[in-house]
Design a protein that fits this description.
Elements: E1 2-6, E2 9-14, E3 23-26, E4 43-45, E5 63-67, E6 70-74, H1 79-82, E7 91-97, H2 102-112, E8 116-118, H3 121-124, E9 128-131, E10 135-141, E11 144-150, H4 153-176
Parallel strand pairs: 4-6
Antiparallel strand pairs: 1-2, 2-3, 5-6, 7-11, 8-9, 9-10, 10-11
């Protein structure tokens, strides 16, 4: 099907490739028109976020969901109600063979990272410290240490840096002796 303009008359050509004679229909006179779109978007808060009335200019933090030309903002905890998705927290642990002094490790990491705090012995069941309030380094035995953290992009970067630092300290210790 296509529209053709023949001698100032618009004709709709419908070729159905059959043995019947082609049909030519005159197009109706269509007046000129314009469409205007409102570029303003509105999102509604739902469930837990809708419980509190917001003041003008107050910000809201949540998950923006676009569905069937509507936008809704919901709390992350409400995601399972509206979809089959779920959120989880992943705790990671790695054990590293380390035969150096635990105090040396803490001292070296203090030189690299700005926030290294000791943990009380009753909380950590032995010597331990936290790096940037995200990663816990525990003394497991004379030959092992373990690192514990909740997985998120920043904690993963901190843990990667600490692991590399530990491995470099091990290289220095073994090359020194």
């Amino acid at each position: 099907m296509f529209m053709a303009d023949i001698a100032g008359v618009r004709v709709l050509y419908t070729g159905d490739y059959s043995r019947e004679e082609d049909c030519h229909l005159c197009a109706a006179e269509i007046p000129q028109f314009s469409l205007y779109f409102n570029s303003e978007k509105m999102a509604k808060t739902i469930r837990r976020l809708a419980e509190k009335t917001l003041e003008v200019g107050e910000s809201v933090s949540g998950l923006l969901v676009k569905k069937a030309f509507t936008c809704q903002i919901m709390a992350l905890d409400d995601l399972h109600v509206f979809s089959q998705l779920s959120t989880e927290n992943i705790s990671q642990r790695i054990t590293i063979a380390y035969n150096g002094a635990f105090g040396v490790l803490k001292h070296r990491l203090k030189q690299i990272f700005e926030s290294v705090e000791s943990l009380p012995d009753e909380e950590s069941e032995g010597p331990a410290f936290r790096v940037h309030e995200r990663l816990t380094v525990k003394y497991e035995s004379e030959k092992h240490i373990s690192l514990h953290w909740r997985s998120d992009p920043i904690s993963d970067m901190v843990s990667d840096s600490v692991i590399i630092s530990i491995l470099l300290i091990l290289i220095l210790i073994t090359s020194y002796y």
